[in-house]
Design goal:
The structure is a single chain. By secondary structure, the chain is α/β, with parallel strands linked by helices. It is built from eleven helices and 13 strands. The strands form two sheets. An eight-stranded mixed β-sheet has the order 7-8-9-3-10-11-13-12, sandwiched between helices. Strands 1, 2, 4, 5 and 6 form a five-stranded antiparallel β-sheet that branches. Strand 1 and strand 2 form a beta hairpin. Helix 6 runs parallel beside helix 7.
Length: 325
């Protein structure tokens, strides 16, 4: 098997608060292959975004990160210096953040912020830098790139800002793009355009994508493989088609049942009772058991581990692979 672009083994992330440490990620394993789009899904608080931020070294000083392996393109990320991180971000790995309005500095033009990236990583300035920026903005379907370059963030719409953010991320041709719910702040039509644009650029440039989202419809549309996170752990992973055909974990089934469907008759939408635990590291057994209608005694004392339940499919449930409703 070829070496994955991103390899994570037994990742733990804790945050120090006065008098205690709170666990956000409790032992995640993930691989992102070359040219692959891996979807990472789950409710708010399941550890999706902090996992992505750990790959860029952007967690706050209160975070403690431990991992058996945290490798990007074969490079160990666990002990990089600040200078190493500055070199890595934007070249080998880049990120498209959830809210483009907050992703740009409001007191500088879009062009000046993109020029800074090229000056930092490639030493390009002046006309050479502007030519590269225009080329990238045009590839991101940006109308009137010269006007955009001279504009301040507040002068652009949300869709144009997200195109500019995508262009910023791809300026130095990274091998891995982390997309953190890149369409959440956009209306439906613009979100669809951004997804089509991302897919086209990924196919043309060949970069891998770690696609963080809570939208299963988007996952089904753009991702080749999916990892379902719950309470800081991967509870199921599978090729996208297989996951939607036969989800094995009760949490995955609950997420899918809660998706509104137009063909359903009017009535109350399905929900998962309860909420994600605040500190999954303090839980023994299965972290989902209090919300699961299939839980039994073993779930309270023994944490289920990921195991093979099909072709490329794994689930962390004692009942996975069995006939359950």
């Amino acid at each position: 098997m070829p070496e994955p672009v991103l390899r994570i083994r037994d990742l733990h992330i804790r945050f120090r608060t006065p008098g205690r440490r709170t666990t956000a990620v409790a032992g995640i394993d993930l691989d992102v292959g070359a040219g692959e789009i891996l979807g990472v899904v789950g409710e708010t608080g399941c550890g999706k975004t902090v996992t992505g931020l750990s790959v860029l070294g952007l967690l706050p000083d209160t975070a403690e990160v431990e991992a058996a392996e945290l490798c990007l393109l074969g490079r160990d990320l666990r002990s990089l210096s600040d200078a190493d991180w500055r070199e890595l971000r934007g070249t080998d790995v880049a990120m498209v953040f959830q809210n483009p309005t907050n992703s740009f500095n409001p007191v500088f033009t879009i062009g000046s912020q993109l020029r800074d990236v090229l000056a930092q990583h490639e030493g390009l300035k002046g006309r050479q830098a502007d030519a590269r920026i225009r080329e990238v903005l045009i590839s991101c379907a940006m109308p009137d790139p010269d006007r955009v370059m001279s504009s301040y963030p507040h002068q652009l719409s949300g869709g144009m800002l997200q195109r500019a953010m995508l262009g910023l991320s791809l300026l130095s041709r990274p091998k891995l793009l982390i997309a953190d719910e890149p369409t959440t702040a956009l209306d439906v039509t613009i979100a669809a355009q951004i997804l089509e644009l991302l897919l086209r650029l990924q196919q043309e440039m060949g970069f891998s994508v770690l696609f963080i989202t809570h939208d299963l419809g988007v996952v089904r549309r753009v991702c080749s493989r999916v990892a379902v996170l719950y309470a800081g752990r991967v509870v199921e992973t599978a090729p996208t088609a297989e996951l939607f055909r036969a989800p094995q974990h009760p949490y995955t089934r609950g997420l899918m049942a809660a998706v509104p469907r137009t063909h359903r008759s009017a009535g109350q939408l399905a929900t998962i009772p309860g909420s994600v635990p605040a500190d999954p590291g303090a839980i023994e057994g299965c972290a989902f058991r209090d919300r699961c209608g299939l839980a039994f005694d073993r779930c309270a004392t023994e944490r289920p581990q990921l195991r093979n339940v099909g072709s490329g499919q794994q689930a962390a449930c004692h009942l996975a692979g069995e006939e359950t409703p």
